[in-house]
Amino acid sequence: MNTVMNTVMNAASLYGLVGAGLFCLGLYALIVHAHLLRKILAINVMGSGVFLVLVALAKRIGGGAPDPVPHAMVITGIVVAVSATALALTLMLKVATATGRAELPDDEGSE
Amino acid sequence: MVTTLLQWTFDALLGLVLLWLAWRSLASTDLFKSIVLFIAFGLLMALAWARLDAPDIAIAEAAIGAGLTGALLLGALARLRAVVNEEGVTPQQQPLLRRFPVWLPAILLLWVAAGLAYVVAALPPYAVGLSAQVAANLDASGVSNPVTAVLLNFRAYDTLLEMVVLLLALLAVWSLDIPLAGVAAAPGLILDTLSRQLVPILILVAAYLLWVGAHAPGGAFQAGSVLGAAGVLLLLTGWRLPPRLEGLPLRMILVAGPGVFVAIAVLTTLTSGQLLQYPPVQAGLLIVILETVATVSIGVTLAALFFGSPPRGKQHQ
């Protein structure tokens, strides 16, 4: 019980837990929703969760300036995420233009 | 780490609000509401970065996560509404899941959540990571902001690849060539005046962020995303690239970022035998050159990603 309290009271692991929670929320939405725009939002939330865990881990240094290497990785990650989102949205619009629906076709029953 | 109760309460509240916003955004039945909640989520993420002593990420998140991603999502939603009927916009469950009880994925995900929470909690509370190595070599890096030193010097290879990823994403978007659904109507007086005032300020902010990144939070990515935001604002008010810049000049700017990176990589490989191993004396100058070119390239690429289809003035002449 003591260790649980310590984990929750520690700011770094608190944000780490929030990051893990965001990842799971995103993963759940990614699995459950069929709409592609929702899936893209879900992947972005998952990414934010991963970034939060990384930066929370960088803060485990006790007082001083946090580890800059994960910070640089996350900045790189944010820029990659926005370009991947732009590509994903374009692919979604292409699917929607071709099929009239913003969902991937159901594999079963198509053949 | 000593945390006062007040700070802890703030952190805990922020964490809960982040989780709640993410949940509401993903569960909302209205896609427009989902996106607006997601933008609010991005803004609060910037606050979380600030609380985690990561001001560099906070600036990037505020400009990209909350600003550009939101603009991309809203733009895509508007185009989506033009091609699919309203029924296609309402949420539907994954077809495969219709045969299973709705709680099954939730139960499975709870296991994943418990496992992840255990892993995060089980990590040692103190770890130095690579900060000692970064601090030891900071003097030779040419800049005094450790995050910029990692991005543009120690791990410049990652940044080189990232520039290529941005270019690749734009090439893919251009090759898919989704036309703009209805060019926005002429901007009203307020939007027109506001954008005329804001764009020069945004350019100035980008230049400041670029320059200050050498010794304080800021740098090429933050500056580039502010520049991209200025581009998006211009595009929204109906501004289009002058036809004489649409062809080669635009493409030259787009490839300049990765191009200069590759050129410096080749140069350093020839002179020092190591990829992107700058001589300490010229490191500061090389980083400023790289960052300046990268900023313009990133800004133009992000604005072009928002625009979607390639400019085609030349082909119609």
The Rg value of chain A, from CA coordinates, equals 18 Å
- The rounded distance between the terminal residues' Cα atoms of chain B is 65 Å
Return the structural class of chain B: mainly alpha
**Portion of residues in helices of chain A?**
over 70%
**Major β-sheet profile of chain B:** none
Count of spatially separate domains of chain B:
2
Specify which chain pair forms the largest interface: A-B, 87 and 101 residues
The counted number of beta strands of chain A is: 0
Task: Walk me through this protein's architecture.
The complex is a heterodimer of chains A (111) and B (317). Chain A is mainly α. Chain A has one domain (2-99): Helix Hairpins, CATH 1.10.287. Chain A has four helices and no strands. The longest helix of chain A is centred in the last third of the chain and has 32 residues, at 68-99. The mean pLDDT of chain A is 85. Chain B has 317 residues and is an all-alpha fold. Chain B folds into two domains: 1-127, Four Helix Bundle (Hemerythrin (Met), subunit A), CATH 1.20.120; 134-311, no CATH class. In chain B, helix 8 (156-176) packs parallel to helix 13. Chain B is globular. The mean pLDDT of chain B is 85. Chains A and B meet through helix 1, helix 2, helix 3 and helix 4 of A and helix 1, helix 2, helix 3, helix 5 and helix 7 of B.
Q: What's the gist of this structure?
A:
The complex is a heterodimer of chains A (111) and B (317). Chain A is an all-alpha fold.
Write the layout of secondary structure elements.
The complex is a heterodimer of chains A (about 110) and B (about 325).
Chain A lengths: L1 H8 L1 H22 L3 H23 L9 H32 L12
Helix pairs in contact in A: 2-3, 3-4
Chain B lengths: L4 H23 L3 H21 L3 H29 L2 H4 L13 H20 L8 H7 L8 H9 L1 H21 L12 H24 L7 H17 L6 H4 L1 H25 L7 H28 L5 H4 L1
Helix pairs in contact in B: 1-2, 2-3, 3-10, 7-8, 8-12, 8-13, 9-10, 10-13, 12-13
